[in-house]
Amino acid sequence: GQQVMQIPQYQHVQEGEDFTTYCNSSTTLSNIQWYKQRPGGHPVFLIQLVKSGEVKKQKRLTFQFGEAKKNSSLHITATQTTDVGTYFCAGRSFGNEKLTFGTGTRLTIIP
Amino acid sequence: SQTIHQWPATLVQPVGSPLSLECTVEGTSNPNLYWYRQAAGRGLQLLFYSVGIGQISSEVPQNLSASRPQDRQFILSSKKLLLSDSGFYLCAWSVGGLGLILENEQFFGPGTRLTVL
Fold first, then answer.
1. What is the per-residue pLDDT across B57-79, written as a single tens digit (0 to 9) for each?
2. In terms of Cα–Cα distance, which of A85, A93, A13, A26 is closest to B41?
3. Which of A9, A66, B43, B56 is 20 to 30 A distant from B67 in Cα terms?
4. What is the Cα–Cα distance from A10 to B72, expressed in whole angstroms?
5. How far apart are CA B74 and CA B66, in angstroms?
6. CB-based contact A101 B43, cutoff 8 Å
7. Closest CA of chain A from B30, distance in Å
8. Cβ contact (<8 Å) for B49 and A98?
9. In chain B, whose CA is at the least distance from the CA of A33?
10. Which residues contact A89 (CB under 8 A, 6 or more apart)?
11. B103 in contact with A at a CB cutoff of 8 Å?
12. How confident is the model over A5-24, as pLDDT tens digits?
């Protein structure tokens, strides 16, 4: 079945440093979504990428979808304490009606 | 606007006891509904999803079951809980229609934290 892996599993950064999480799928994806889950909270949708090589930005967050549509990344520039949480990618394969969530990357910020 | 409710927020149950978690969505019709489980510090595992009343698809064989008695109501149940059933249970919905699951974002409820002792 489809598998979606994320690396790293954990990341500790000093406030102000950059952060990147990588998402890799075992199958080609029709689209990929990113979610953020604050500690003790529930996942909240951030963005969806559909096109090969697509890049989208939300303020300090940059999302990329690979050319082969099998990988994606989320980059945060100049992290802030509000960025703390676990970031999940979630991908859907062609012809598959389910969304498969990645294993997540937990980000902690050192003030 | 749409809202999704889950209850209870927390639950402590003994091994072997039954379980019933309820999820309701307001402000939308014919949503796709999902049950996920998240073990402590882990990712999201899809348990069940539904595209309509009475239509349930199971992802993982287990001692849990799901039902959708009404369009916007999704229930997760167990007859006898196991220790391994402990976790954070999340209900989610996405825009549905005509039995197709569209490529839309999922909206999560606040979750139920279940501890089985």
1. 988 868 999 999 999 999 999 99
2. A85
3. B43
4. 36
5. 7
6. yes
7. 16
8. yes
9. B105
10. A4, A6, A21, A23, A32, A33, A34, A35, A72, A74, A101, A102
11. yes
12. 999 999 999 999 999 999 99
| B37, B58 contact by CB (below 8 A) | no
Asked if A70 and A28 touch (Cβ cutoff 8 Å), the reply is yes
Answer whether B103 sits within 8 Å of A31, measured CB to CB: yes
Q: Kindly identify which residue of chain B lies nearest to residue A92, measuring between CA atoms.
A: B103
For chain B, the 3-state helix, strand and coil shares in percent, each to the nearest 5, are: 5, 60, 40
Cα angle, residue A46 at apex, residues B102 and B7 outer, rounded to 5°:
75
Contact A92 B103 (CB under 8 A): yes
Spell A48-87 as b/e; 16+ CB within 10 A means b: bbeeeebebeeeebebbbbeebbbbbbebeebeeebebbb
pLDDT tier for residue B99 given thresholds of 50, 70 and 90: very low
Contacts of B107 in chain A (CB under 8 A): 45
d(CA B21, CA B7): 6
